[in-house]
């Protein structure tokens, strides 16, 4: 079953001569346990696709479904609840709240959703532990390295029963080794059943995904085929 | 247009990577650790390159014969040619190895890259969408990178040789994709905002000096 399904999604800004089409007729389906990368140059509509998939923006046309439920008929409160409970976001600049510790940042979405503080904190600590950050739980963001901050952001994105992880250039500010570690964490979340969409212009990042979708001028222009197993690269008779 | 027309781009990776020069010095490096048999040298070479670059026994023995001829290795004279014949590095071999390790390979001349040539040709053909040509290759390269990344994801944690070899391949393929992205953007900008016409409307393709018999 698809966790995220985008059907013929379009997005336009402005009107008349100033109208800008950011997305046009985009179809995208992401199943549980799958990572999809969206590649494209600047201005191709990658980030717009992500914000619409995460219900942070509404499409001008088409339909977005999360767990088979269409977002178009939802009230603002229901959308906010969906975002808190089912969707995690990871951004290039981490977006952690500077006045909260790592553990508080991670448990905040649960507390906002009405989970009791002690329980939320326990879930937060478990998510941090999973990402190897248990000993940094009491540190504030400015006391953490870039890689640690991004791991906190990923912990926050997958804490609780999140089903969909949306990442916008999640390793953009990190060195390649730390970036690879971040991608391994997103992959591990997928192996636990999370569906992930990673938006990037970086082919090395995209190559961690099960499928890669290429966006150009707001349209999907191409998709990768499912790759054969890596053993095909090691055949001795090449 | 048929995709098969475009996908003949050869990624430039196969046993030719392990060219004669690399095998020669790789065998010297293995012998620098101590005397070894021919078959043992082949197995250790394959193991240390993460099994990414296969090497057949024939290549090993041919190379060892040449190294012996050049005085860079010595063999057990008494032993029969075959798997049980042992080899050791000479002082001259150790000197050769040391010099090779510290000498950067000649990267001053661009390789004759089929993909670069294809794009240069496609951009001037009236009935060919060069962006489609670029995208077909971009997708193919990303699919290749996905395969290499799976290899790293599955096995690299325990194997340093494989991790290094896979990283090298990923960075090489990534650099080709970056060039394609840059070329794609450059061609689009040139189409939207063409440069002022030069006296000769379409200039010749750039000339790059190439050494006769140079690397591919």
Could you explain how this protein is built, in words?
- The complex is a heterodimer of chains A (238) and B (216).
- Chain A is α/β, with parallel strands linked by helices.
- In chain A, 32% of the residues lie in helices and 27% in strands.
- Chain A has helices spanning 46-53, 76-86, 102-112, 117-130, 146-158, 176-191, 203-206; strands at 2-13, 20-31, 35-39, 61-66, 69-70, 87-91, 164-168, 195-200, 211-216, 219-223.
- In chain A, the strands form 2 sheets. Chain A has a 6-stranded mixed β-sheet with strand order 6-7-8-3-9-10, with helices on both faces. Chain A has a 4-stranded antiparallel β-sheet with strand order 2-1-4-5, covered by helices on one side.
- The model of chain A has no long low-confidence stretch (mean pLDDT 90).
- Chain B has 216 residues and is mainly alpha-helical.
- Chain B has helices spanning 3-6, 20-31, 38-48, 57-69, 91-101, 114-122, 130-155, 160-192; strands spanning 36-37, 73-75, 86-89.
- Chain A binds chain B through residues 39, 41, 184, 187, 201, 203-204, 206-209, 212, 214, 221-225, 227-230, 232-234, 236-238, and chain B through 14-15, 51-52, 54, 135, 138-139, 141-143, 145-151, 153-154, 170-171, 173-174, 177-178, 181, 184-185.
Keywords for this entry:
heterodimer, A: 238 residues, alpha/beta, Rossmann fold, six-stranded mixed β-sheet, four-stranded antiparallel β-sheet, 7 helices, 32% helix, 27% strand, globular, B: 216 residues, mainly alpha, Arc Repressor Mutant, subunit A, three-stranded antiparallel β-sheet, disordered N terminus, disordered C terminus
